[in-house]
Write a structure and sequence with these properties.
Blueprint lengths: L6 H14 L3 E6 L8 E6 L5 E6 L2 H4 L6 E7 L2 H14 L4 E6 L8 E2 L3
Pfam family, one: DUF1491
Protein name: DUF1491 domain-containing protein
Organism: Consotaella salsifontis
Length: about 110
């Protein structure tokens, strides 16, 4: 099993890559530096919002790479409710928002 980079380093690398491609990224919530769960929100130019949450263990792989599972979110109110539930479960999570039509360019998407 390969060691996983810290959450803080993953977020820093992600935001730099997005900015380098001329797109926008923002850390909306800063979590635990070493191992906080990372959630990625994407917004396309057409207004579609997707949430990429950490992949479940069965889909995570053993190569140390972070994998994400996608879900379409109806609106910002639904997203806010999700953050409230997550904070009750684990207050050390990260939220990063990126504007891109191709999130797979930046994220490893787990296949179910």
């Amino acid at each position: 099993m390969t060691a996983r980079i810290t959450s803080a380093l993953f977020v820093a690398q992600l935001t730099r890559r997005v900015f380098a491609d001329g797109s926008f990224a923002a850390v909306e919530r800063k979590g635990a530096e070493a191992a906080g769960a990372i959630f990625i929100v994407t917004r396309t130019r057409m207004g579609e919002v997707k949430l990429f949450s950490p992949a479940i263990q069965a889909l995570a792989g053993d190569d140390g790479e972070r994998r994400f599972m996608a879900e379409i979110i109806a609106d910002d109110a639904t997203l806010s409710l999700r953050w409230e539930r997550e904070a009750r479960f684990d207050p050390d999570f990260w939220v990063v928002e990126i504007e891109t039509d191709a999130p797979e360019r930046y994220l490893l998407i787990a296949e179910d």
